[in-house]
Amino acid sequence: MVELETTIRNRAGIHARPSAMIAQTAIKFSSRIFLEKNGNKINAKSIMGIITLAASFGSKIRITADGSDEVAAAEAIKALFESGFNEELG
Amino acid sequence: MIGNEPKGFTVLDLLSLELKEQNALDLTCVAGRAGLGRQITVPDLNRPGLALAGFYESFAWNRLQVFGRGECAYLSKLDAEGSHGSVETLFSYDVPCCIFTSSLRPSVSFSEAAEKAGCPVLVTSLNSNEFSGRVLRILSDIFAPKTTIHGVLVEVFGIGILLVGDSGVGKSETALELIERGHRLVADDVVEIRCVNGSILMGQGANKVIGHHMEIRGLGIINITHLYGVGAIRDKKQIQLVCQLEDWDPDKVYDRIGMDELTTDILGVKVPMLEIPVKPGRNIPIIIETASMNERLKKMGYHSAKEFNQNIMRWLESENARTLYFSRDDY
């Protein structure tokens, strides 16, 4: 199991489009991937789940991945957060 | 795209068009039958008043020549004066046909000249105004750019949906289920599409003989009108949405939000398009029905995906404000 921490860098937070990007990246991996914020833990392969995190700008997110490709999966998701989803950074 | 002009649309074709009440032209040929094979090459009319008066510069000879009361009165004046020169000049051009409106009759001398030149003379009971309106509409339909597309055209909740995709992906089966659920078949397999008025795509079956038959693998040819009744079919329908069915490609990214709107180009008109991945267990007809209703909502100004996202953004903004407030040291 891999655990990484990241911060929301784009000003708008995790709305529908970033959430779709996360889910679409997550779905490429066979590992079980979760995002956690303030004790809420959701499956990173569910768009609606990710949205319900209410991850606004500056929130801290913990990414956990568990499975055969866990390292690559967690890194890929983290890279997405770091890039700010090609949106305006705060 | 197949040629813009119909291959040889003749005066005889115009006479033999099957038109319903509000479109009927009520034309009969009274002279110059020999010329019924003349081609109509432009979807336009001309009132030959100036020509009859002897002014033949810029004479639009290749259009349908429409004679109303004014032209007729002038013709009888010419007749009374015994001058037939300008009528003969008129027929020296290769005019497709002369049409007399309001049941007016050409004079004997005019008919003889037409007969000699082999130019058909038609009479309609409609007045010039009504006739012009109808014939222009009909001709613009006939001369509209057209193409044929391999697909199935169905009407779902009033929206014309063109199902396209590779052979065997399940277009016909999807259409059949939609018909079973009370929607309508317009055309199966070969859909003829005309661009009307430059912005409306009208789809219909390419062939009257094929009619509303469908080919279903394992069943063969079935007649939808007989099986499901006349309520299950439609002759033509505007294409408002294109659904591209394709086998589920695990490497392809399918739209999951619906905020980016894909369009496809048919005859220069942009039509909204959805790419719908097909795999066992996905009920495509239900998805098509939902797509249709969603399209209707969009037309009414409600865009589900956009509104959803706006709500999310507003919520995130308020969450953000709350966090900032509670993280201040001095409250």
From TrEMBL, chain A:
Pfam families for this protein: PTS-HPr
Q: Which residues form the HPr domain?
A: 1-88
List the subcellular locations: Cytoplasm
Q: Which GO terms describe its biological process?
A: phosphoenolpyruvate-dependent sugar phosphotransferase system
Q: Which UniProt keywords apply?
A: Cytoplasm, Phosphotransferase system
Q: What is its main location?
A: cytoplasm
Q: Extract the Gene3D superfamilies matched here.
A: HPr-like (3.30.1340.10)
Assigned GO CC terms: cytoplasm
Quote the protein name from its UniProt record: HPr-like protein Crh
What is the native source organism of this protein? bioreactor metagenome
From TrEMBL, chain B:
* Location of region: Important for the catalytic mechanism of both phosphorylation and dephosphorylation: 214-223
- Catalysed reaction per UniProt? [HPr protein]-L-serine + ATP = [HPr protein]-O-phospho-L-serine + ADP + H(+); [HPr protein]-O-phospho-L-serine + phosphate + H(+) = [HPr protein]-L-serine + diphosphate
Which residues does the annotation say bind Mg(2+)? 172, 215
Residue positions of the active site: 150, 171, 189 (proton acceptor), 256
Q: Please name the PANTHER family in this protein's record.
A: HPR KINASE_PHOSPHORYLASE, PROTEIN YJDM-RELATED
Q: Which family does it belong to?
A: Belongs to the HPrK/P family.
Q: What else is known?
A: Both phosphorylation and phosphorolysis are carried out by the same active site and suggest a common mechanism for both reactions.
| Free-text comment on this protein's domains from its UniProt entry | The Walker A ATP-binding motif also binds Pi and PPi.
The identity of this protein, by name, is HPr kinase/phosphorylase
Could you tell me which species this protein originates from? uncultured Spirochaetota bacterium
